[in-house]
Amino acid sequence: MKLFFPQLQDHLKKKNLLPIYFISSDEYFLSQEAVMAIRHVASAHGFSERVSIVAESQQNWVEPLMAAIHHLSLFSDKKIIELNLTQINLNATVGKAISDALPHLSDHVLLVVQTCKSDAKNEKSAWYQAIEKKGATLAIWPIPPKQLSQWITERAKKLNIALTPMAVEQLTRLTEGNLRVTDQAIQKLALMTSDKIVDHTTIAFCLSDDSRFGLFDLVNSALASDSARCIRVLKNLKDHAIEPILVLWVLTREVRASIARLSKGRCAELLMRAATIDRIIKGAVPGEPWQELEKMTLSLSGSTLA
Fold first, then answer.
1. Who wins on pLDDT, 73 or 110?
2. Do 114 and 24 belong to one domain?
3. Which among 71, 34, 26 is positioned nearest to 50, based on CA atoms?
4. What sign results for the dihedral spanned by CA atoms 280, 283, 284, 285?
């Protein structure tokens, strides 16, 4: 079947889970939201084991995928396999490899695939139609600028915040339409203000610094592999006497949220580095926290300077 993003929640509530969900999008934030929604429902349906596979080349994921499908766990008889193909090209070879795995899926194995945006040629192919017959395809498009205000308003309502129209307009301008930054800004508003109605003055007070050199902007600079900006943001945070433990918290949270995007090796290395920085901050081991935070940030960004 073919699903659209606004239909996903209703589909997950009303129907049994399908064997495969194929999510294609260039909007990684929304794509990851879809994955998390499916993961949450799968957990409630007894899929207690989760396997994450990140493709770093066109072929290195096929064997691990088939091994994960056929591997029997001692701890759970249901597993969800999250296959991240966003770093490789979506072509006929990739599609055929996925369609070849379809006969091996069952009620006990759920496959969730993330890819970059698909095109009309792929969607007319036999492998794509085979996926639609076995499960669901979900093409997610970027939110049009005219609908962004509504998205922000609804997002804030989920955290019991009512934004005035001027607040929505200012938030849109500050975050420049970046959904990840916008979501993080709304979360910060929920933490920083007890007001249920937030106007533009509150936005300015809470987020004006963050729009350029804030904690969450540090994460987005790292995700954009902008090492020079990472260093500038860190310097600004240090100059404004932001506690190193807050910077570490934001970075660590992002590493844990990016397990599906990063390789297991990189995640493990970053978390070990975070544990060391935590000990430095607490005075358990010698070291300079800001220097180590810079190294961790550059490592997250993929910089060879880390």
1. 110
2. yes
3. 71
4. positive
Those residues whose C-beta lies under 8 Å from the C-beta of residue 99, and which sit 6 or more positions away, are 126, 127, 130, 131
The residue among 85, 108, 139 that closes a domain is 139
Residue 304: the pLDDT is 56
Q: How many domains does the structure of the chain reveal?
A: 3
> For 174-183, what is each residue's pLDDT tens digit?
776 778 778 8
pLDDT reading at 34 higher than 80: yes
The domain boundary residue, chosen from 123, 139, 155: 139
Report the mean per-residue pLDDT for the chain. 85
> Using one digit for the tens of pLDDT, what is the confidence trace for 127-168?
999 999 999 999 999 888 889 999 999 999 988 889 999 989
Nearest to 5 by CA among 136, 109, 131: 136
- 196 and 219 in a single domain? The answer is no
- Per DSSP, helices labelled H in the chain are 8-14, 28-44, 62-70, 92-101, 120-123, 126-134, 145-158, 165-175, 179-192, 200-207, 210-213, 215-223, 227-239, 244-257, 264-281, 289-301
Same domain, residue pair 7 and 134? yes
What digits encode the pLDDT tens for the residues 189-213?
887 777 678 887 777 767 655 444 4
- Name the residue type at position 272: M
CATH number of residue 112's parent domain: 3.40.50.300
Instruction: Map tokens 């937030």 to a residue.
Output: 198
pTM value is 0.67
At residue 19, what is the residue type? Answer: P
Give the separation between CA 123 and CA 127, rounded to whole angstroms: 9
233 and 274 part of one domain: yes
Residue 20 bridge partners (DSSP): 111
C-alpha to C-alpha distance for 137 and 21, rounded to whole angstroms: 6
Residue-number span of the structural domain to which 241 is assigned: 212-306
